[in-house]
Amino acid sequence: MTKRAREILDFYRSENAGVLSNLARMINHGRLAGTGHFVILPVDQGFEHGPARSFAPNPPAYDPRYHFALACDAGCNAYAAPLGFLEAGAAEFAGEIPLILKLNNHDLLYDEKDPAPAVTGSVKDALRSGCAAVGFTIYPGSAASKVMYEQLREIAEEAKAHGLAVVVWSYPRGSGLSKEGETALDVVAYAAQIAAQLGANVIKVKLPSAHLEQAEAKKAYEANKVTLEPLSARVSHVVQSAFDGRRIVIFSGGPKVSDDRLLDEVRAIKAGGGFGSIIGRNSFQRPRAEALKLLGTIMDIYAGASAR
Amino acid sequence: MTKRAREILDFYRSENAGVLSNLARMINHGRLAGTGHFVILPVDQGFEHGPARSFAPNPPAYDPRYHFALACDAGCNAYAAPLGFLEAGAAEFAGEIPLILKLNNHDLLYDEKDPAPAVTGSVKDALRSGCAAVGFTIYPGSAASKVMYEQLREIAEEAKAHGLAVVVWSYPRGSGLSKEGETALDVVAYAAQIAAQLGANVIKVKLPSAHLEQAEAKKAYEANKVTLEPLSARVSHVVQSAFDGRRIVIFSGGPKVSDDRLLDEVRAIKAGGGFGSIIGRNSFQRPRAEALKLLGTIMDIYAGASAR
Amino acid sequence: MTKRAREILDFYRSENAGVLSNLARMINHGRLAGTGHFVILPVDQGFEHGPARSFAPNPPAYDPRYHFALACDAGCNAYAAPLGFLEAGAAEFAGEIPLILKLNNHDLLYDEKDPAPAVTGSVKDALRSGCAAVGFTIYPGSAASKVMYEQLREIAEEAKAHGLAVVVWSYPRGSGLSKEGETALDVVAYAAQIAAQLGANVIKVKLPSAHLEQAEAKKAYEANKVTLEPLSARVSHVVQSAFDGRRIVIFSGGPKVSDDRLLDEVRAIKAGGGFGSIIGRNSFQRPRAEALKLLGTIMDIYAGASAR
Amino acid sequence: MTKRAREILDFYRSENAGVLSNLARMINHGRLAGTGHFVILPVDQGFEHGPARSFAPNPPAYDPRYHFALACDAGCNAYAAPLGFLEAGAAEFAGEIPLILKLNNHDLLYDEKDPAPAVTGSVKDALRSGCAAVGFTIYPGSAASKVMYEQLREIAEEAKAHGLAVVVWSYPRGSGLSKEGETALDVVAYAAQIAAQLGANVIKVKLPSAHLEQAEAKKAYEANKVTLEPLSARVSHVVQSAFDGRRIVIFSGGPKVSDDRLLDEVRAIKAGGGFGSIIGRNSFQRPRAEALKLLGTIMDIYAGASAR
Amino acid sequence: MTKRAREILDFYRSENAGVLSNLARMINHGRLAGTGHFVILPVDQGFEHGPARSFAPNPPAYDPRYHFALACDAGCNAYAAPLGFLEAGAAEFAGEIPLILKLNNHDLLYDEKDPAPAVTGSVKDALRSGCAAVGFTIYPGSAASKVMYEQLREIAEEAKAHGLAVVVWSYPRGSGLSKEGETALDVVAYAAQIAAQLGANVIKVKLPSAHLEQAEAKKAYEANKVTLEPLSARVSHVVQSAFDGRRIVIFSGGPKVSDDRLLDEVRAIKAGGGFGSIIGRNSFQRPRAEALKLLGTIMDIYAGASAR
Known about the structure:
The structure is a homopentamer.
Chain A: H1 3-10, H2 17-27, E1 38-42, H3 45-48, H4 51-55, H5 64-74, E2 78-81, H6 83-90, E3 99-102, E4 104-105, E5 118-119, H7 123-128, E6 133-138, H8 145-161, E7 165-170, H9 185-197, E8 202-206, H10 215-223, H11 231-241, E9 248-252, H12 259-271, E10 276-278, H13 281-284, H14 288-303
Parallel strand pairs in A: 1-2, 1-10, 2-3, 3-6, 6-7, 7-8, 8-9, 9-10
Antiparallel strand pairs in A: 4-5
C-alpha cells in the first residue's frame, strides 16, 4: 500500500473496513494502482442514449464483453455499467477488474424537463455480481432532486452496511438551471458538495466552465476572488468544494472530442488536483487499438511526476 | 442438446441453473426444438383489446383451452397468457408445453396517453402454475416508463431467484413518441437495449420500420451508415442492439395481415438473424386448421437451412 | 351432486379443494340447489346509496337481520353484504346460508368522476365470519382501474389460498366511458373478460344494452356479425366472453323496475345461458311477503325445464 | 401425453398445475417416457456411506459430472443427489434431465441407533437449481421419526406451493425395529402408507422380504390371507398400501448384487405393478459401458409388453 | 488471470459472479498468486486453545495486528480469524490481504465429548469487515454434527447470495470416532466429501494417516486397492474424494512440528495434488523473522516446477 493510497483511505475513517477494502480495490488496481489517480470506464450509454448513438461508431462495442476486456486491457481502475450490461460479463471476467453497478438509469425515449432515473438494480445485485461499489446518479437542479437524494441516502446506507463503496454521478440539470448553468463552476462545485454531503465516497462531476449561474453565488465568487481561469483552477475549486480534497472527485469527459482537447483536459485535472477521469464515449467509440493507445496516454499523464 | 442450443444457453452464464433449465425447456420444445428458433403463441388480447375484437372472428377461441391445444398441436415453443386464461388450462395441459405467465396487463376501457399496465399476477402464481417463465410489458416512451422499469427489476430479481426465466415485451408508446415513432428503427432498437439492460432473458419487440424518430439518433444512423433496408437489415440491427445477438430477440406480428406479408416478414426475421416470431392474432383469429397450416409454414421457414 | 353441479365445478380445475367446496356450497344451497342457477341477495346499498334511499321504502330493512332472514326464507343461494351489515347477523344466522363478504365499498358523499371503492374488509374477516366467498368490485373504465385490479389480484390470491371463492362485481364506469357506454354490450362483455382474467370464480355484470361504445369494437361486432338482439343473445355473448361459459356469470338488476320487466329479463338471462340473477333493490324495497313471492317466481323460471 | 401418463397425473388431482407439470417432466423423460415406468439414478452415497465405499470401485464416479452424464446417456427419468453434488453439474447439464434435490442426508461418521438425517438443502436451492422435485428421507421406526415427519410436512407444503413435486425415501430403521424388520413386508407397506399420508407424490421403498415383523400385523396378514410369495405379490401389496396404486411407488436396489438377481427383481417389480426402480450402486459402481448396458436391459424389461 | 486460475474458477460454475470474484481474490493474491496453490494464515487458537498456549511462545502475537502484518509480509493468499481478532485489524489493514471471518468457534473451558462450536459471527459481519469469505467448522463424528451441518447450510446460502465464498474446516471428532480415527484416511476423505456436499468452496482437512477407522470402509479400501502410502498418495485420495479434485482442498498442519517434517508434508501435499497449506501455530509461535523464512520456503515449494 503506497503512502498516497493510505492517505486517501484515511479520508474515510468513519467507513467500515468493508468499504475501505473496496475503495482500496479500486485505488490499487490497474496501471494507476497506488498513485491515487483513477481512470474509470463507464458504459451506461446504451441505456442513457440508445444503442446506435453509443455503439454504431464502433460496432464490436455492442457486445457487453467488449467493454470488460477494454477496461482490463487498458488497465483501468474500475468498470461501471447498469445491471444487464454488467451481468453479461461479470461471471466470465470475475476477479479481473473492480466493478461498479450503476443502480439507476435514465433513457431518452421519454425525455422530461425534470428527469429522475429509474432504479434498475439493487445492493444485493451488486453483491452477488462481485462489485466493489454501487453507482447512483443525482440531478441537482431537477424538481425531482429530492426523490433522488432520498433514494441515494437509503441505498448508501444499505450499500455501506454490506461493505460496498458508493460512487455518485452528480450531474446538475432540470428546470432550476439554464443549459449553460449545468456546467457552471458554481453549480458543479455545489453538485460535488451535495454528493459529499449525501455520503458519496467517490464523486463524478462534469468539467466546469467559467460561467457562474446563480446570482448570489456569483457575488460570493467575485467578493472572494475565486479564480476562474485556467481550467486547472476550476478543477481545484471543485475538489476543494468536496470536503477540501478529502473525497475522491473524478471528472467526466462527456461527448467525443478531439484527442488534443481531451488530453489538455486531463492535464488540467491533474494540475488542479483532480483524482482522475471517467472516460466513456471517448474510449469505446473508436477502434480498440486507438482506444488503448489513448487511455495509455491519459494514464501516462496521471502517472507522471507531479507536485502531488 | 444441439450445438446451437448450448451456444444460446452460454449467452446467459450469469443466470442460475434454474433459469438456464427453463430457457432450455423453451429452446428444446416443439417443432423448432434445438434449432435456436422460436414460435410462441401469446394470447393476452382478451384483456388488452377485449373479447369480441379478439375472439369473434373464430368463436372457439373464446375458450381458454382452445389456445393451449393450438399451441401444443402446432408445436410452438411456448404459450403465454395472463393469469385467468392460463389457470383455465394449466392443470389440464400440465406438462404439455412451456408456459409463460404474463404478469402485467392493460385494457382499453380506460385509455391513457401514457399508459402503464396493471400487475395482475405474481412470481408465485407462475411457480404454482408450472410456468417456465414470467412475462412483463414495458412501454418505453411513456411518462410512466420509470414505474414499469422498477416493477420489472423487482419481478426479475424474484423470478430468477426462483429459477424462472424473464420474458419482456418492450413496446414503445406514450407521449414521448409519435405514432410512427413507436415502430421506428431507432426506437425499437432502443427498446430492445432497455429490456436487455433490465435483465430480460427473452425480448419481444415489434418489427421496425425504416423511420428514424429521434433527431440525435438519426444523426448517428446517418453518420455511421446503419443500413435501413431491407427489413432483414433492420432485424439485424435490432438483434445487434440487444447485446450483439447475445439475447433471444423475438418479433411480434401485430394485427392480422395477409399471409404473404406475414411469411415475407418471417423470412426477413430469419435472414436478419432474429430468433423467431410471436404469433397471436394471425393464428387464433382464423379457423384452427388454417392456423395450424400457417404456423407449420412459418416453422418450415425457421427450420430451413440457413446461414445460422 | 347433480351432473350440472359437477360440470360447473369442473370449470375450476385449477382451484384447490377449499375453493371448490365453497363454490359447491353456493351451487347446492337453496331452492335452486344443483340446478346450476343462482339467485343471490346482495345488500350493499346502505353503503353505496345511503340508508334512506335504500331502506325507507320498506323500513324493516333497516335491520341487517331482515336481509339474512329474507335470503334464507326465499331460498337464495347466497347472501352478500359489507362487513358491518354482515357481522350484524353472521353469528345469529350461522350455518343458515352461504355468505359473501363484500371487501370494498364506495359511498356517494364524495363522488368522483373516476371512482375507486375503499377496501372495507379483509380475507380474515370473511374467514372468521364463516363466509363461502369474498366479493370485490372493480370499475373498468375508471382512471383508477389499475389500482382496483391490483388490489383484486392480491385479495384473490390470499382468499383462494385460504379456500374462499372470489366473486367480482365488474361494473364499468369512469372517464373512459360515456354514461350509455357503461352498459354497452361491448363494454359489459369486456368487463366480464377482465374479471375472469383476474381470477374471478363468479362474475357479476349488469345486463347489457344493444349499444356499442368503442369504435374498434364496433367494427369487430359488425364484421363478425355478433347478434345484438334480443336480450338473450346479448346475455349469450357476455357469457361466452367469460371463458366461453366456463365461469359463473350472474346478472344484476339495477334499480327497482316493474315486475314484468324484471321477469322478462330473468327469462332472457335463462334463455341466453346466464347463470342467474343478483336481486337487491327489487326484493328488499318491497314488503317481505311480496318480495318472497317475486323471488319465488324468479326461481321458478330458473328451475323450469330449459335447453340447458 | 400417453393415456397412462394422463392416468397417473389424474391420481394427483389435488396438486396444483406446477406439481403436475413437474411430475409430467419425470414421467415423460428418457427411454421410459410415457410408459408410466421409471428408472431413476440417485447418487447420495458419497454423503451416506463415504466416498471410497461409493466410488473406489469405479473411480471416474468421484466426479459429480459423471453421474449427470450417466443418467442422461442411459435415458433415466430423473437424477437425484444432495446439494453439493447436484450444484456441481446443474448449470452444465441444465435442461438435460429432470433433477431431484435430496434435502436431507445422513453420514456414518456418527452412527446412531435412532438416526435422523441433517437438512442439507432448501426448497429455494431446488428452485434455483432447476429441479423438478425435492427428495426427503424419513426413517419410520426411529425414535426421531416424528422430527422427520414434521420436517417433511413443512418442506412438502413449501415445495408444492412453489410447484415442485415431493419424492420421499421411506426407509424403516431405528430402535423400533429388528434388522430383519427393516425390510419386512408389513413394515415396508406401512412405510409406503406413511409417506403417502405425509403428502409424498413419489415414494421410494426397499423391496420387501416375506418376513412379518409386528405381531398384530402378522395376525391381520394371516387372517386376511395376504399373499407373501412370490416377490411380485409383495410388490403388489406395497403398491396397494400406497393408496391402492394411486401414488408412484419405486423400489430401491440396495447394495450391489448379481445382475441376474437384480433383473429378476425388476421383473417382479413390473409384474407386481410397481412403478419402477431406483438404481444407484448397481449402476455407478461398475464401468460406464457395463452400467449403460445394465440400465438398458432394465429399461427393456419395464418397456416390454405387460398386463398393465 | 493464469490458465490454472481460470481452470479452478471453472470448477465453480454454479456459483454467482460474486463468489467467483472472491475466490479469484484469494487465488490471485500473495506470492502464490495465479499458481493455484495456497498458503493461508489462520489464527483462531486464542479462542480455541487459550491465549497463553497460543501466544506465550512468541509474545508479540498477543496483538491481533501482528498476524495481519505477518500474513501480508509473508505473501499469504488469505488471513482467517474469529470476529474479535479480525475486527482488531480489519480497518487498519483494509485492502492488504483477503480476509476470512471464522463464523463459529469453540473453547476448551468447557470441553465436551461431542462438541459443537458456538456461532460467533455473521455473514453481515463478514461483509462490513471486507472479507472475501466466511469460514465455518464442522465436526463430523460428533453427536452434534447434524446441528453444525444445518447451521453451515444456512450460512452458506446467505453468504453465497451476498457474493462471499465459503471455507469449511472439516475436522472429524466426537464419540463416533476413536482418537486415531480423527485423522484416519477413510475418515478424512469422508470429511472432505461431506464438506463438499454441504457446498464448501474451499475445504480444510488435516493430513491423513494410513489408519483406516471404519470396518466397512476398510473392506472397500482393500477390495479396490486404494493406495495408503506414501503420504502424497493419501493426499491424492482426499483430493479425489472432494469431487475428483474439483474443490480447493487445503491441509492443515496441526501442532508445531519440526521444520523438516513440515516441509516434507508440504512436498507431499504438492506431490499429491493438494491445493495448499493452512499454517497457524507453525508460523506465529516462532519469532517473526523465522516465520517469514519458513513461510517463504513453503511457498517456494508450492511455486516450484511440478507435474501440475
